[in-house]
Model the fold of this input.
Amino acid sequence: MNRPARPSAPRPLLIAAVALAAAVTACSAPGEKSDDAGSDSGPIKIAVVDARSGQLSSLGEWEYKGAKLAIDEWNKKGGIDGREIQMKSFDSQGDPTTGTNLARKIASENYIAMIGTAESAVTVAMAPVLRQSEIPNITSGQADALVAQKSPFLFLNGPTSTTYDSTLAKFLIEEKGFKKIAMISNNGSFGKGEHDAFTMAVKDLGVSPVSDQIVTTDQKDFSAALTKIRSARPQVIFIGSEEVEAGLIVKQARDLGIDAPFAGAAPQGTPVFIDTAGKKAAEGTFVSSPYLSNDISPAAQKFAAAYEAAYGEEAELHGAKAYDGTNIVLTAMKTSGVATGKKLADAIRATEYEGLLGTFKFGEDGVGITKTTIGVIRDGKLAEDK
Done:
């Protein structure tokens, strides 16, 4: 028996129904930046971006592990208001162009905050996209170029190069009495930042470097620059370079008969620097750092024990920085009711946090901590200089 055909819905009603269905589907996905994201019951999406491959991959591994440890601890306690914190790692390869593309991907996939990167040049490249997308970012980079971005969404989980190097310059000149200081830095974002900050610091103290050598970020043979430094007969040599390159510089300097001590910022206090240079060559290196060892406080000891239990290796500065930075972001999420965008950025800026590196209080420039301590490498370990 043939049934009469059901009348089709009027076209305007059909269009309205489709539009309504689309609107319902689009409502506040978990972690999505929208007015309702803070009240959503779904998981909270956080991106962690660092070099996980290439010469700077050791930085990325330390950062990833520090951030993951913090997030795992929060999730074990129920997350934030019962919401699970979901972390995804992205490999920047230490490349600014790759970082910029990742920033666009992070924005399109509704991550509400980003941890990283440890490479200042990559963070600087990502900053405009993250600012436009209103995604707060806490970075372990230290170049003053980060502050120069003047982004209200960019925060540093450690001091700037100015703090590292002014502290170091004052120690070398006023406490150690060194007047003949040589410099060797690379031409990358980190190296240039270190070079400029240290040059300004020593000149403010009335000292001009006896030799100032610039190398490239991918250089492997430093004999020409080191030969010039050797002829200047310095009392101490400042390095503005990441850990692998810095280690190669020290190793080759010792092979050339240079016995002056070296000095630098955070990279020279890492196990990778010591392993690359060799324990004997690295001995006596002066390091400016906000985190000299895992024994500096009960909180550091607790962190180090948890880090070793989770990963089977010793913690160090970069893992501690990422751990502090992640805890600051999560604390701001908690106090703001998982706000997003500018509200979350404002909550981060308002957060005072007792961290492994010290007491964080963020200024309008996004810098939360402005103090370092001088350490020295003894028997293959970084320890406080006493």
Q: What stands out?
A: The two ends are 100 Å apart (CA to CA). DSSP finds 14 helices and 14 strands in the chain. Confidence is low (pLDDT under 50) at residues 1-39. The first strand starts at residue 44 and ends at 50.
